[in-house]
From TrEMBL, chains A, B:
<dbReference type="InterPro" id="IPR055132">
    <property type="entry name" value="RNase_J_b_CASP"/>
</dbReference>
<keyword id="KW-0378">Hydrolase</keyword>
<keyword id="KW-0862">Zinc</keyword>
<dbReference type="GO" id="GO:0004527">
    <property type="term" value="F:exonuclease activity"/>
</dbReference>
<dbReference type="InterPro" id="IPR042173">
    <property type="entry name" value="RNase_J_2"/>
</dbReference>
<dbReference type="InterPro" id="IPR041636">
    <property type="entry name" value="RNase_J_C"/>
</dbReference>
<keyword id="KW-0269">Exonuclease</keyword>
<dbReference type="Pfam" id="PF00753">
    <property type="entry name" value="Lactamase_B"/>
</dbReference>
<dbReference type="GO" id="GO:0046872">
    <property type="term" value="F:metal ion binding"/>
</dbReference>
<dbReference type="Pfam" id="PF17770">
    <property type="entry name" value="RNase_J_C"/>
</dbReference>
<dbReference type="InterPro" id="IPR011108">
    <property type="entry name" value="RMMBL"/>
</dbReference>
<protein>
    <submittedName>
        <fullName>MBL fold metallo-hydrolase</fullName>
    </submittedName>
</protein>
<dbReference type="InterPro" id="IPR001279">
    <property type="entry name" value="Metallo-B-lactamas"/>
</dbReference>
<keyword id="KW-0540">Nuclease</keyword>
<dbReference type="InterPro" id="IPR001587">
    <property type="entry name" value="RNase_J_CS"/>
</dbReference>
<dbReference type="Pfam" id="PF07521">
    <property type="entry name" value="RMMBL"/>
</dbReference>
<keyword id="KW-0479">Metal-binding</keyword>
Amino acid sequence: MSSERLIYLPLGGAGEIGMNAYVYGYGKPGKERLIVVDLGVAFPDMDTSPGVDLILPDIAWLKERRDQIEAVFVTHAHEDHVGAVAHTYEDLKVPIYARNFTANIARRKMEEYGHPEDAVKTVGPWPHQQGAGPFMVGFLPISHSIPESSALVIDTPDGRVIHSGDFKIDLTPGVGEPFDPALWSEVCKDGVKALICDSTNVFSPEPGRSEATLGPAIEELVSNAAGMVVATTFASNVARVQTLAMAAQKSGRSVVLLGRAMRRMVEAALETGVMKDFPKVVSPEDARAIPRENLMLLVTGSQGERRAASAQLARGKYQGMELKEGDLFLFSSKTIPGNEKGVIRIINQFSEMGVDVVDDSNGKYHVSGHANRPDLETLHDVVKPQVVIPMHGEHRHLREHVKLAETRGMQGVLAVNGMMIDLSGNKPKVTEYVETGRTYLDGSVQVGALDGVVRDRIRMALNGHVTVTVILDEEDEPLGDPWVDCMGLPETGRNNAPLVDVLEQDLSQFLGRAKAATLRDDSKLNDELRRLTRQSAQNEIGKKPEVTVVVSRLS
Amino acid sequence: MSSERLIYLPLGGAGEIGMNAYVYGYGKPGKERLIVVDLGVAFPDMDTSPGVDLILPDIAWLKERRDQIEAVFVTHAHEDHVGAVAHTYEDLKVPIYARNFTANIARRKMEEYGHPEDAVKTVGPWPHQQGAGPFMVGFLPISHSIPESSALVIDTPDGRVIHSGDFKIDLTPGVGEPFDPALWSEVCKDGVKALICDSTNVFSPEPGRSEATLGPAIEELVSNAAGMVVATTFASNVARVQTLAMAAQKSGRSVVLLGRAMRRMVEAALETGVMKDFPKVVSPEDARAIPRENLMLLVTGSQGERRAASAQLARGKYQGMELKEGDLFLFSSKTIPGNEKGVIRIINQFSEMGVDVVDDSNGKYHVSGHANRPDLETLHDVVKPQVVIPMHGEHRHLREHVKLAETRGMQGVLAVNGMMIDLSGNKPKVTEYVETGRTYLDGSVQVGALDGVVRDRIRMALNGHVTVTVILDEEDEPLGDPWVDCMGLPETGRNNAPLVDVLEQDLSQFLGRAKAATLRDDSKLNDELRRLTRQSAQNEIGKKPEVTVVVSRLS
């Protein structure tokens, strides 16, 4: 088959939430011209990726096709969509297109990693279209929890495809553009081949609420507070930051921004003009002269991140600011699964200070940025695509979204990372399985998730580590006793004998009895010493540690 | 002051959820006769306690006062209340009193660890009272999510104290005794000095629902399912297990129990007579002959535990049983904070199999075992204590519960682990701060949480590990080159040079230049080699690993 085809290939974000990276291609099989939509990161955790700094999509497939790639398009400035643009630039070296606010954030990243900022090109919203090989791509505004979020209208020789990006249906989103049903209907009226669609909230049965519904509740809370008020939310949720700041202003409070991301996002929003009337901000130094009941701090760390402002305030002072009994702390945010313990730790630390903590458990102080089930139906109805391909979701979300589309008379295609879908013709089909995965940014190095590096770390965390050192003389005879060092293991085991002594004794006995053939054979000797160390530790402390054996020969 | 006093001292469970251990004492200060209420465990996690098997309360304070301890009383058979009885028996060696079902579970634990089962004494419910030094203790039935849960009525020379244990207000709990307001009023009518009270659900504003409300919804779900149904809940929630089994029976399904805890709990419930009419159970072997639409599996692992039945089924086969497209999996449970990722992993694995997963997000298939805020008020009103001392909660729960008591005209005392409260007289006061903490059961050894063992493991998980070996000859001159082994670190760093080579080269250069004084001094040489290794790794891979230095001298 040599005719041209239109393909869709998720490399990240389909079958997980985070690390978005989607590829579209058009051309002869294997020769398609490609565009990449979003290049985001995911965040590591102790359970699966201890010590890792960031998780990037594995773009090996793209690297091998570097010459086929026309451009990267970034739908919005959330880390899971834009976070990897700098880390992957060296490998791709193609222009990065984004709207003004998103481009501002992307350029800061490029600068931080020493890449040319002008690789990021600002493009205007629909009806502007940017050409990229066989594609014409337009940024169609849609509401979300960050300014200038856009769906992409991807015109191909095979028809129009809509990539929703992250979205909600919000007619009054505060900062950022409202969802405009008339504009969307106009764009979609001549038929849409496929809608590649956000699936995050497919299990939420009620229609989503507008950002505008939060203002009155937050204002009431802030104006009734007796002491200082501290509020946290994602800094990138500029509309929320503004809602919070306006509540401060209305209750006569000066606003202090704490945390790098908070200052950076407000700066970017003002620079790009997406935010116009933000109250005057007071520095932490100047805030000290202001009575605490006239202060409101907007701080980073809504997910309990240990180094962010809220966690630091929970542990004590941060930039000279400190909470006290009678102050109020507001989580204007939802806790992302996996972050509960960190958030709860902070709440308890504030509780110990006598600070009242208010969170979103009553639904008054936060709304989601993603379309709930009825809102997905609204978008389906406006776009009327031939096919719905769910993305931005774990497997359960994608599967449910496919079901939803099918019950509503559309085709639904379940495509997880690595499934290349051929969208040509009337019946999309899986045409290839591409190897995908995760790359870890670990310190300054990128390592594959399956390289074993992290696996070894997890093993050391679970089992501890023993170093065994043996020196053999020119005759392959042990010179002195073996030497044992332990890390992450109890000092004493059964019968209160020091673990190191027991291990050294057992190893020493073994060496005394070992055959010359074993002593001469590095690999055999290593294996035996390792096995014996683990066995001996198991007897003594009920654990089999990881073992490094160093055999030194004087020969 | 030498008069006698009544004291309350939480050693675990106050300021955290889990690891319950409360002490009551009566006598001259420092000479009090003591009883211990509950000896439970908490569960480790990768973030704070990798490799640890169980977390026990630190009972050093009790060990030093072994001669003053009369007995242990266990309110109910949940792990966070009974889990540590066997692990602490050697140190305490006092009788353990519990009701029949709880005693059955406790004896299984004693047997497992080789302790005398007859140390566990069965006592009947109120009005029976068990003497223990100056105390008379009665087990007053109260509803919870496990059979025979009881509050303790602790009569002291200073008056009556009620220790609520874990409870909910349920008049129709299925298995187990209903809350009996008349009995409770009778017990409390002559005045209660203090109510030490469960605080878990103080933030839940609605009255709790009865276990009995679940039956119809679960029956409907199970009877409408087309394929096999698999349900998970805490095995110890015997009432729920029965509700699920009855739903199976009503829809003509045979019940299969999977997971050790599930079989063990049903066995204990039948042995002790707390459960009478459990449907006939089919073995996994026999189940293979039964059509899957006539099967219902009740399985362990509602919290996503990797080794439990539900996680194993999510990965593939377990005891010959396997889920398929069209089957239904029910979480009749709530996910405990911190366990979300494990549970979500399972849901996605089932989604990949085409299995429909139903959880409690709509509130139809699970009710909590703890008293919500209005139910706490109900208990306050029945008991009418002079003082409420909240327990079984994190700091935020205890603080809120104190506020609740105080707004309702009672005294409230916030006592966290280690605060000894003097309950004598009319105004309870903190009389002493006792050092408390956590002990880790790690393999077969108990280690202190602050001993550094786990800290070192976490560091290795975050930073990786390097072994550096250097041999010095009789003249303190390096013999050959230093040798480096890495674990949990990338193989190559900047410029793609092998990390090991770069480190060995840097260390070799250092040794070549090192002064004789450094080479002669073990401690100095160790420090320098460690520092240099970390610095060199930082340059190369952006990470400072943990380092074990082994210097061998031929002298």
